[in-house]
Amino acid sequence: MIASNEAWGPFRPDIDPGERKARLRCLRAIVHLSTGPRGQALAELLLQAERDDALLPPALAALSSLDAIDKRRVWASYLALNRSAA
Question: Record's superkingdom (predicted)?
């Protein structure tokens, strides 16, 4: 189970499966482009989580275990791409 303070993007419990898949794919692309081989394990988990919600917590843990600079790049890019139009 994912704590409510960590439930963002594809890890939110209140989104439909199609939206979750889209957000996981967006995040996976960002991870791939931002981290290269350092993020390969995370990218694989995100791909598998498209079909198995039980892999969401391990994917979030893998994201949290990235080096600080990689995390900042991934989070900043995800936010920039998914910011609601005001």
Answer: Bacteria
pTM for the model stands at 0.89
Over the stretch 26-55, which tens digit does the pLDDT of each residue have?
A: 999 999 999 999 999 999 999 999 999 999
Token digits of residue 67: 């080096």
User: In the chain, where are the structural domains located?
Assistant: 16-81
